[in-house]
Amino acid sequence: MKQLVTAQVNGIDTEMYVELWWSLARALRDELGLTGLKIGCDDGMCGWCNVIVDGKTVRSCLVPVARVKNKPILTIEGLRGEDGELHPLQRAFVEHFATQCGYCIPGMILAAKSLVDGEANYAEEEAKQAISGTLCRCTGYVKMVEAVVAAGQPKETNSPSVDA
Amino acid sequence: MQFGYIPFEYLEASSVEQAISLLQQHKSEAKILAGGTDLLVGLPAIRPKNLIDISAIQDLNYIQVDGSVSIGALTTIADLRQSEALSNACPLLSRSADAFQPSVHDVATIGGNLCNGSPVAELAPALLALQAILRVANSEGERLIPMEDFFVGHGLTALQDDELLIEVQIPIADGELKSTYVRHSIRPTIDFSLINVAVAMNVATGGNFGTVRIALGGVRSTPFRAKSVEAALAGRPIDEATIEECAGLAAEEASPTSDRHGSADYKTQIAKVLIGRALRACLAPAVA
Fold first, then answer.
1. Contact between chains at B103 and A66 (C-beta distance less than 8 A)
2. Residue B205 forms contact with A (CB below 8 Å)
3. Which residues of A touch B189 (CB under 8 A)?
4. Which of B12, B55, B102 shows the shortest C-beta gap to A132?
5. Do B2 and A42 touch (CB under 8 A)?
6. If both were cysteines, with which of A5, A115, B59, B233 could B212 make a disulfide (CB 3.0 to 4.6 Å apart)?
7. Which residue out of A18, A58, A62 would a mutagenesis test of the B interface target, given it has the greatest number of B Cβ atoms within 10 Å?
8. Which residues of B102-114 are buried (b: 16+ CB within 10 A; e: fewer)?
């Protein structure tokens, strides 16, 4: 029997009409139409389903939907600023050509988000660690690491602007 | 079909008593759900009728160090890694916790890692080498299970249908304990261990091997203590020849199966190499 589970999804109080045996991934995709996250494997390994629940990056394919009752959830769709401005990671991924097919990108960006948003200065090693749990089949990761490092740099005033 | 597409009855327990009562009610038709990173992945094979979510139970997430170490069953890998007190009292366990893939750190629990009964459970070798004791609650009260008796088969533990693991107790040895955890996996970050080894030992006053405890995972249906290797090392001089010979004994204690992760020969060889490395790492001056 489906039930209502309420959570704050991308800042909006949202009622999801779901079976309690659903995963969060299924609820977000099938019930809310937030298809940015992808289901790429069957064992929590690939990271394409990453979302941020209560500040922590989790594999939504392994989170029972009942567990997110009243919790804040951030998906890739919610990453842009309210004025539409891209998050530094999104901007950097575009500027550094860090995407090919795009399938792993939502998971990859959310995996790196806490590093980029955090206090510390970081370099290539930390950038690699941040994305080390998320699989990409296309790019070979080099441009992604560049993009994650670049996202943490202060923005140069004369860099090309990217329209959202 | 995977979790999210497989129906089951989702039940929640907000206390240990409630969890046990639900277990009594449903017996073998219910499984305990904590972090879920093993159980939910295995759902297609397990197909439980009921899952009892215990993640909301308060007071099962703690690390206490006072003479001995007590860890609540719902303590997450992140908490194990971040605890300075644990790192000082029990570096072997802290280092084992480092081996989990980052994506599960906030979610996976020490209790879950043990209760899934995997032959390569990441925390099992350390807890076996440290002679940990497991505190289990059931409908009659509580009982203690020594780590040595906990794993009874591939995916099988000594827990009865109405039992819940609530605490891991680790006695702290007198004197200086040297310890190391080493593991081998195909891809370092993401894969389960193929073979894992924990060594805890002390050096006897004469400079020979004192008491050595070696625990192995991945070469039998359960993690286990390599007792013949331990016995062979005790009292022997600390030199390369001794290490080589005793690591070779591991081959005799091991009986791995060939599977898609590696052949039996390969696994046996890896176990031998890892035991040698673990012993040498323990003995290196800089390593605690």
1. no
2. no
3. 132-133
4. B102
5. yes
6. B233
7. A62
8. bbbbbbbbbbbbb
Q: Torsion angle of alpha carbons A144, A149, A155, A156, nearest 10°?
A: -90
Q: Which of A5, A38, A43 to mutate to test the interface with B (most CBs of B within 10 A)?
A: A43
Classify each residue of A144-157 as buried b or exposed e, where b means 16 or more C-beta atoms within 10 Å of its C-beta.
Answer: bbbbbbbbbeeeee
Q: Is B66 exposed, middle or buried (0-12, 13-18, 19+ CB in 10 A)?
A: exposed
Angstrom distance (rounded) from CA A57 to CA A86: 19
Contact call for B106 and A20, based on CB within 8 A: no
Angle separating helix axes A142-151 and A105-117, nearest 10 degrees: 40
State the helix-helix crossing angle for A88-95 and A105-117, rounded to 10 degrees: 120
Percent of residues in chain B assigned helix, strand, coil, to nearest 5: 35, 25, 40
Candidates B55, B156, B164, B129; CA nearest to B278 is B129
Determine contact, residues A106/A94, Cβ cutoff 8 Å: no
Select from B4, B37, B104 the Cβ nearest to the Cβ of A22.
B4
The per-residue pLDDT string of chain B (288 residues; one tens digit each, 9 = 90 and over) reads 899 999 999 999 999 999 999 999 999 999 999 999 999 999 999 999 999 999 999 999 999 999 899 999 999 999 999 999 999 999 999 999 999 988 899 999 999 999 999 999 999 999 999 999 999 999 999 999 999 999 999 999 999 999 999 999 999 876 778 999 999 998 887 888 999 999 999 888 888 899 999 999 999 999 999 999 999 999 999 989 999 999 889 878 888 999 888 999 999 999 999 999 999 998 876 333
Q: Kindly report the pTM of this predicted structure.
A: 0.92
CA distance A96 to chain B (A): 25
- Measured CA to CA, the distance from residue B25 to residue B22 in angstroms comes to 5
Reported in sequence order, the residue ranges of B103-140 that DSSP labels E, i.e. its strands, are: 133-138
Chain B residue numbers with beta carbons less than 8 Å from the beta carbon of A129 are 102
ipTM of the complex: 0.87
Q: Which chain A residues are within 8 Å of B103, Cβ to Cβ?
A: 44, 47, 50, 57-59, 111, 133
